[in-house]
Design a protein that fits this description.
425 residues; alpha/beta; Rossmann fold; 2 domains; seven-stranded parallel sheet; 14 helices; 14 strands; 35% helix; 16% strand; globular; binds adenosine monophosphate
Length: 425
């Protein structure tokens, strides 16, 4: 863990003037703490494990030094011809791939078109992406599945990767991506710079990173105190969550609220139930076509859609400017997913609210989420939705002694990482 005093302006970080000019245009007045600490060591070629709150400027923390390193290298050496990539950024969702690539292109605005950045992800035609990859690319932002498809059709090769970034690293190193990630790693050179960025690093992931990285700089900047996000939790009777939700949306006149549920089916179901209570919403999940996903997210970001009901595919990295409210209608399965979900709000120093609605079945699960995330929230109740005290909190049964097989409780919570293929990329 680093303790050095962080520089307070971008010039001190050693960035070149085309990047500094762009940052001034974008009104980035000073580096965020993660940028101040990460940029010099990434410029110097060092491996990195960076943990920082969501919305704390992680993209620029890896994108700026990567751009600079590739740009200065391109000035001094002739580019190799062929379908190669130098800087590879792996992300878990399509939307994040687009968002990261857009940010990089924006940061590179004054690099004379010298750095080519391409994003590839599933759900859209592969042909356009193959065309974009002709002649290789300096930076590639990719979801693992589509990247493997493109490699198998010789559209791109990983032999020349110099820097690998795993954004949302805990997710990329989790069971759901193990096979794809190992297949990709096997195609890259052994010698390369690796940068891991995530808001959470569960213990299991930390162990994995030791094998992957070479003397990494570790930066841990998560801090509940530094957060501008207020977390609240409302107790509610079972069967009254929808009514409470509709009531809260109307009462507070929330104009932009992101609601998380645990399945595609629940998205549609909740949307129907809210509609009956006079609340119009849209849904966002893995069964929607990619163009519909893009349209919905754009509409939500632009404030045309006020209420968006989503599965965890919206929980990672998505940057919605000034999103005021995130609601856990269903609790997330894992404690780290809780942090990622609520991190959609309160980004970049903006004030935000994360609200969890819990009935007696959720109570035990929520206590574990609190414990793992080292938080403790006061239980609140909304007037008119007082909780029936005669209903006892649901405590999951332990598996019978010696039963050999572990019994799955309704809401399994003991592992930080879940194999979740139900709605992943
Ligand atoms: P990220 O954590 O990379 O998703 O960034 C969250 C938001 O903060 C994005 O909208 C960025 O444009 C913005 N941002 C990142 N770095 C800075 C900075 N140094 N100053 C102001 N805004 C920033």
């Amino acid at each position: 863990m680093t303790t050095a005093t962080a520089p307070t302006n971008f010039t001190e970080l050693g960035l070149i003037s085309p990047l500094l000019t762009r940052l001034t245009e974008m009104e980035y007045q000073q580096p965020t703490p993660i940028q101040a600490q990460a940029i010099p060591s990434v410029l110097a070629g060092r491996d990195l494990i960076a943990g920082a709150n969501t919305g704390s400027g992680k993209t620029a923390a890896f994108a700026l030094p990567m751009l600079q390193n590739l740009y200065t290298e391109n000035q001094t050496s002739t580019k190799s011809k062929g379908n190669f990539v130098s800087g590879l950024i792996l992300v878990p969702t399509r939307e994040l791939a687009m968002q990261v690539a857009d940010s990089i292109k924006s940061y590179a605005a004054h690099l004379n078109g010298d750095i080519k950045t391409v994003a590839v992800f599933g759900g859209v035609s592969v042909n356009t992406q193959m065309l974009a990859l002709r002649g290789g690319t300096d930076i590639l932002v990719a979801t693992p599945g589509r990247l493997l498809d493109l490699i198998s059709s010789n559209a791109i090769k990983l032999d020349m990767v110099k820097t690998l970034v795993l954004d949302e690293a805990d997710r990329m190193l989790s069971l759901g991506f193990t096979e794809e990630l190992s297949a990709l790693m096997a195609l890259m050179p052994k010698q390369k710079q690796i940068l891991l960025f995530s808001a959470t690093f569960p213990e299991q992931v930390k162990a994995l990173t030791e094998e992957l990285l070479n003397d990494p700089l570790e930066i841990q900047l998560q801090s509940a105190d530094a957060s501008t996000l207020v977390q609240r939790v409302f107790n509610v009777n079972q069967g009254e969550k929808t009514a409470l939700l509709a009531h809260l949306i109307k009462k507070h006149e929330w104009r932009q609220v992101l609601i998380f549920v645990n399945s595609k089916h629940s998205c549609n179901h909740l949307a129907e139930k809210l509609a009956k209570r006079g609340v119009t919403s849209q849904v966002f999940h893995g069964d929607k076509g990619q163009s519909a996903r893009i349209r919905t997210l754009e509409g939500f970001k632009a404030g045309q859609i006020h209420v968006l009901i989503a599965t965890d595919i919206a929980a990672r990295g998505i940057d919605i400017d000034k999103l005021p409210v995130v609601i856990n209608f269903d609790l997330p399965r894992s404690p780290s997913d809780y942090m990622h979900r609520i991190g959609r709000s309160g980004r970049a120093g903006e004030v935000g609210l994360a609200l969890s609605l819990i009935d007696h079945v959720d109570a035990h699960h929520f206590s574990i989420i609190e414990k793992k995330n080292k938080i403790r929230l006061e239980r609140e109740e909304e007037a008119g939705f007082e909780v029936d005290e005669t209903v006892e909190a649901y405590v999951p049964m332990a598996p019978p002694e010696g039963s050999g097989k572990k019994k799955r409780n309704k809401a399994p919570v003991n592992a930080d990482i879940w194999l979740r293929n139900s709605d992943s990329e």
